[in-house]
Amino acid sequence: MSRVAYVNGRYVPFRDAKIHIEDRGYQFADAVYEVCEVRGGRLIDERRHLDRLGRSLGALRIRIPMTRAALGIVLREVVVRNRISFGTVYLQISRGVARRDPAFPAPDVAPSVVVTARPLNAARIDALAATGIAVVSVPDNRWGRVDIKTVGLLPNVLARQTAIEQGAREAWFVDQAGLVTEGASVNAWIVTQDGKLVTRHADHAILRGITRTVLLDAVKGEGLSLEERPFSLDEAHKAREAFVTSATQIVMPVVRIDGHVIGDGVPGRVATALRHRYYRYAEAG
Ligand code: PDD
To answer: Measured from the CB, is residue 162 less than 6 Å from ligand 1?
Structure first.
């Protein structure tokens, strides 16, 4: 089946989908994005993703190019046209195409909107969740507003590559105080020896993950105790469990951090239970 993308008002064959070379997303990473899970052909937590998109656009003063309802229709149309049952839909909005100049272009420059969708391999993700993944730590050298979901992801790219070259799947950023902020494309969590879930509070130093937000509801709903606070790498090494969350992996157990075995070296009870119960708390559109 041939893939279809949405580019600035048109559904086009994926191989022909193009953006101009002076698009500001391309030249300045002057663009924001969202990745939303598709499950059973339905968008998971579309409302929260579009809320966060609105906040990212507002923070960067990028004009919202179409109504929220219209954007929702496009997302769903791309899912349908690509016949995605389980996968992701990707949305990117840049400040548009203009002569290269860091200052904002004229107000009549239209933002560029791109939507793509692709299937995910559920069996592969479940197999990873059954064994757990390894992570490595890297210094957090990102800018001070990573709560805005921009496509400026070079530190994340380098961090993930470091992880892969060291035989791990994900990297955790650690700030100058030795505290874990988040992963290269996930939020980071631990379960302490006395059974408390800990994840960093959402400030400007992490992306407020939608999966993280839903999981906070799940944690409350399941009667687990939670602390939203920073944790150190040392605390993570000694944790009973660790895991990461994102729209593409939901709850993914972590069994090794920098070579230290976490807990029993197998996915923990809490992470596994939360992974199974996640969809009771998520919104399926
Ligand atoms: N990444 N932190 C970072 C830096 C991320 O890039 C992501 C998402 C998350 C988790 O957010 P959410 O739960 O809303 O997916 C946290 C997406 C999946 C990506 O860039 O592909």
So the answer is: no
